[in-house]
Amino acid sequence: MRRAASLAVLLLLTACSPTGCDGTPPAPDKGPPPAPGDTVGPAEPPAEPPAPETPPEPEPVDWPHDPPGGLAPGSGSGATDPTVWAAGMRFPMKAGPAYANSQVYGYGGFAAPGPGGQCDPRNYSYPWRDNFCETRSWTNGLCPAGRGHQGQDIRPATCVKKVHEVVAAESGRITSIGSYTVTLLGDSGRIYRYLHMDMPGVHALFPDAASRTVARGQTLGKVSADFGGSATTIHLHFEIKAPVDTGSGATVMFVPTYPSLVDSYGRLLNGAA
Ligand SMILES: [Zn+2]
Questions:
Q1: Percent of the chain topping pLDDT 90
Q2: Which InterPro entries does its entry note (predicted)?
């Protein structure tokens, strides 16, 4: 009998919580709600201001281009000097893509590597290739043979005449408009020559002496194939003449064009022409 009573007490204690015996767990005692201004718990540290977002640097745009002096096979011996003779010049076409290669040793040229016309896609593709010292009979003092091409051939984005704009490599003055050559004397003293543009279009843009002072990047004309009555392929032949110290004073002469074109085209592709 005593044992049964003890068991009942034990059961009673087991089933009941300190606040009741209905089986519901007791609500935690929260105490009175905090008065306004009271601090509850440790103060939160002030949030750090978000760091300003730094936009990722864009990857520089590059394009396949052979080194200076890397002429087309069989077309002569090139000038490998990487000197950028016209540092900071504007690429002479308004927009890319453009294709520096040979119009004589390319498809459709007099010394083509195989059958194909001037509009062959292989002429309108990379890599770029130097042709400043390409085999020609013209005097070219900085070429290994002392003779060469004097400039660089550049095809525009597409094989179409009178579409692609040619621009001033630097600010200066147009000193001559010939039957297929436009000469620009830059403010630096360098001379730039542009061959084979659409010449009626050039004359229309520069009708008189007053119009011939030009700003860097100003349109000079459009790429075509004019050649003083005959025609060549659709391309711009571009030259730079600059004073060169030959050991007995400075002589103005044709300087390798290709490194300055590589430099300026890279800036054009990267939006800093
Ligand atoms: Zn040429």
A1: 75
A2: Dup_hybrid_motif, M23ase_b-sheet_dom
